[in-house]
Amino acid sequence: MDNSICQVYEDEIQSLEEEIKLLAEKYEDSQQESTFFSDELLMSTKSFQREFQGGSKGHESPSDLKAQLENLETDLSFLMKFTGIQFTSHSKKTVEQTRNRTVRKHRLSGNCHSLSFQLEFQLLEMQKKENVSAVITDLSIIMESGEDSDVSKFVSSTEEHRNLLTFFRSLSSYAEWYEHRRCTFLHFK
Amino acid sequence: GVFAHLEMLEARAHEAAVKQEETERQEEKLAGLKARVQELRRQRDELRAKVDLQQKGQLGQEGVVSDPAQPSARAVLERKIKSLKAMLQVFYLTGISGKLTKRGVCFCISTAYEGIYLDSYYLDLLTKSEVQIHRHSIPIFIPLEQIAKKYLQTDIRRFLSVLSDHLNAYVGRRYQADQLQERFSDQIEGILQRNSLCNLLVFNYDVSSKSKTFPFNARLLYGDLCCSLPTQATVSCAPDAPASLAEMAAAHSDLFRRVALHKAFGSFSSAEESVD
């Protein structure tokens, strides 16, 4: 008799926890900048876990938080300088969320050296045992220099294969080369 | 008689005590669960209210219902930290991210194949005097030393770019081979032979033509380590096979060089369906 009551409570606890998780997600979504995807994705290589976790979760003092913020800002500004990729805006919307699956639509804009881009993509994340897998299920890219036929060919092929990573890697190389060429021309003017 | 009786009474009392303990424990557990349920319900209702207000646009950025005019300094910090972490995670999707360390930089090279994110690799660099690789998780069959010798000192960006190309091509090749084994195992005869670098694949597969199956052998060599398509594809059938099959083998060889392996096999199945 008692066991069944326990079970009823435990079931309710589980469903409440799920509901809370969903509501919290929904709330976070509507805030302007929100967490992208779970930290577990970055934790998938165990030996470098600590290196990449931006501090422990929980209650740190304001001075700890400030230090953490400064570290993150330094890291981010280093990455932007190093890769030449600057993001100017980023928003996301949860399209589907179940226990193990989350689908979010992202809007990202920025530039790489002097080339601007605008992206919209759909990211599917699935919880699998210890890892979180990430898959781009839809991708659309708008490039400022879209009139260039080479660029538009590259863009449509990238979109077709949903190669977000290839897009950025190629963009980075292309933008650097483009920048060199531009500087060279200016030099000769 | 008396002692036996006493023993029996003791035993009964003990039983009763154990039962009592058990009941108390159960009740405690129930009370605990009940309290948790109530707490969760409270949290859930609070969140619901927050989300409702948010939908109606009445919450400020920090979403503190009690005092909308004054988000705590702590909440502001936490929000900023969250958004920066999100930005860092976007960099993960671009293929190169990282974190500054006391003595240099720790880069993370992520890989993906056709939108599916696969393994990520770490490279811990020391940048005090000359650039040195302190630690890394690059597989041993990737020519890291060669690439480092060529680019690490003169052009770190190029070094990472070339390394990223190698790693992405490798995971792409591996993914195709894995997909072939997983999804087309019924067409593969025996084992799919491959090396660690996944740039040499040898396998036997069945081709059906006019309700008969013929064994084909394929040997794929990926000569360009930065490419996930083979540079050489040798497809052969039995020497006594009809001429039409030799033609098919040539067509397959061409296909393997142009199209991802698992996609090529996918097209065989659909082609057969339409023919039969």
Automatic annotation (TrEMBL), chain A:
Q: Could you give a single Gene Ontology term from the biological process aspect?
A: CENP-A containing chromatin assembly
One GO CC annotation: nucleus
Coiled coil among the record's keywords? yes
Coiled coil spans: 6-33
Give one Pfam family, short name only.
CENP-P
Q: What are the protein's UniProt keywords?
A: Coiled coil
Task: Check the record and name the InterPro entries matching this protein.
Answer: CENP-P
The UniProt entry, under PANTHER family, shows: CENTROMERE PROTEIN P (PTHR28577)
| Protein name according to UniProt | CENPP protein
Protein's organism: Mesembrinibis cayennensis
UniProtKB/TrEMBL annotation, chain B:
Q: Which UniProt keywords apply?
A: Centromere, Chromosome, Coiled coil, Nucleus
Provide one Gene Ontology cellular component: Mis6-Sim4 complex
Query: Coiled coil: present as a keyword of the record?
Result: yes
> From which domain of life does this come?
Eukaryota
Parts forming coiled coils:
6-57
Which compartment or compartments is the protein found in?
A: Chromosome, Centromere; Nucleus
Q: Does the keyword Ribonucleoprotein apply?
A: no
- Tell me which family the UniProt entry assigns to this protein: Belongs to the CENP-O/MCM21 family.
Name listed for the protein in its UniProt record: Centromere protein O
Q: Which gene encodes it?
A: Cenpo
